[in-house]
Amino acid sequence: MGKRSTPASGARALPTEIWVLIGAAFVIAVGFGLVAPVLPQFARSFGVGVAAASAIVSAFAAMRLLFAPVSGRLVQRLGERRVYLSGVLIVAASTGASALAQSYWQLLVLRSVGGIGSTMFTVSSLALVIRISPPEQRGRVSGLWSTSFLVGSISGPLVGGVTAGLGLRAPFLIYAVALLIACAVVYLSLRNSSLAVPEAAGELRLMSFRAALSLPEYRAVLWSNFVNGAAVFGVRMALVPLLVVEVLKQPPGMAGVALTAFAAGNVAVLFWSGGLSDRWGRKPFLVAGALICAIGTAGLGYSPNLLWLLGTSVVAGVGSGMLTPAQQAALADIIGPKARGGPVLAGFQMSADLGTVIGPIAIGALAQQTSYGVALVVTGALLAVAAMWWSLVPETLRPKTPVLDVVQVTHLGKSSDTPATVDSGGDVVTRRCG
Predict the structure, then answer these.
(1) What is the pLDDT along the chain (434 residues), one digit of tens a residue?
(2) CA–CA distances in Å: residue 429 to residues 6, 249, 275, 404, 405
(3) C-alpha–C-alpha distance, residues 149 and 167, integer Å
(4) E strand residue ranges, 107-162
(5) Four-residue CA torsion sign, 34, 37, 40, 42
C-alpha cells in the first residue's frame, strides 16, 4: 500500500489511497443525498411547523460553520487520519441515533452533533487528499474528488426513491451503516500506508491561517469559494424552484429537471478541467469558469421559457465545473507539499458555508424587493468579480524547477552518492553519473 506505479505511457498512476478516499467520499455523498429529502418530513412528523422543520437543516449547517476552526486546529494537532475517522464515526452515531429520535428536540440535537462530525470529516479529508496527492496531478485528483461528491449527491435521492416504502426512519439507519462500512474500509486501507502516515516532526511544516491570508492567492480562493457557495449551493437551490413555479408557471417537478441540467453540465467538465489545470495552470480555468458561471447564473433570471432555463443551467454548471477543481488544486498549491494547513483548509470550507448561509437570505430579499432577474444578475456579478480577482493574482501552479541534489544510486550492486536533478515534486528526473 502506498506505492505509486508508473504505467508504460509515462503517466504516473494515482496512489491506491486516493481511490479509497474518493470511493468513501462517494458513499458519504450518496448517504447524505438519501437523508436530505426526508429530513424535513421527519421533523414535521413530530408536529412542528415548517420553520421548525427548516431549522433542523440550518442547525446542521450552522454547526459545520461554527466548528470549522476547531476542526482545523484538531487536524493540525492530531493529524488527518484521526480526525477523519473520528468525524465519520460521529456522523454515523448521530445519524443512527436520529432514526431512534422520539421528539423534535432530540432530532435537533443529534443533527447538530452530526454537523460537528461533518466538518471534521470535510476538513481532514481534504487535507489528507492534498497531502498524499502527487503534486503534478492535484488538478486531476480535485476533479475526481469533486465528481465523486456530485455524482453521489445526485444518486442519493434516486436510492431514496427505492427505499421510500421503508418509512422515514429507514434512510437514517441505511446511512449510518454505510458510514460505518466506509470508515472501516478507510481505516484498513490507510493503517499501514506509507503515504498517509503522519510525518516526522522535523519534516512537517505547519501553515497558519494568518500566513495564508497574507497571500493574494489565498484571499482570491476565499472570495471565489464564498461566491461559489452563495451562487451554486445557496441561491440556485433557493431561487430556481421558485422561478420555475412562480415565473415560468411550470409544475414543481420541473425544478428538479433544472437542477439536474446544472449537474449534467458540472459532471461533463469536472474531471477534464481538473486534469488540464495540471498542464495549463489554474488561472485559465478559475477565470473562465467564474465568468461562464456568472453568465449562466445571470441568464437564469431572464428565462422567457423552460428551454432557456435549462440551457442557462447547463452553462452555469459548466462554469462551476471548471472553477471547482482548479480552486481546490490552487489551495493545495498554496499549502504546498510536506505541510499541514488545518486552519487554512478550515477557512476555505467556512467561506463556502458562509456563502451558502448568507446568499439565499440576501439575494432572496433582493428578489423580493426587485425581481428574480435583478437578484440573479447581482449573483452573477459577484462571480465576475471573482474572475477579475483571479486574473490579477499570481499563478499558483509553480513550474518544476530542477534542483541539484545528492541521491543514493545503486548500480550493479554498488551504492554511491551521485548528483541528480530532482524536480519540485521530489521526483528524480535525471542522474549525472561520472
Answers:
(1) 444 444 433 446 777 888 888 888 888 888 877 787 677 778 888 887 767 776 777 778 788 888 888 888 888 788 788 898 999 999 999 999 999 989 989 999 998 899 899 888 888 888 888 777 777 777 788 778 777 877 777 777 667 666 667 778 888 898 899 999 989 988 888 877 666 566 554 556 778 888 899 999 999 999 999 999 888 877 887 788 788 888 888 887 787 788 788 888 988 888 788 888 888 889 999 999 999 999 999 999 888 999 999 999 999 999 999 998 899 889 888 887 666 778 888 889 889 888 888 888 888 888 888 888 999 999 999 999 999 999 999 998 876 544 333 334 434 344 444 444 434 444 333 333 33
(2) 13, 62, 21, 11, 11
(3) 25
(4) none
(5) negative
Answering whether pTM is above 0.85, one says no
For 425, the grid coordinates are: 515534486
The rounded distance, in Å, linking the Cα atoms of 391 and 221 is 12
DSSP label of 297: H
Sheet containing strand 403-411, strands side by side: 403-411, 414-422, 428-431
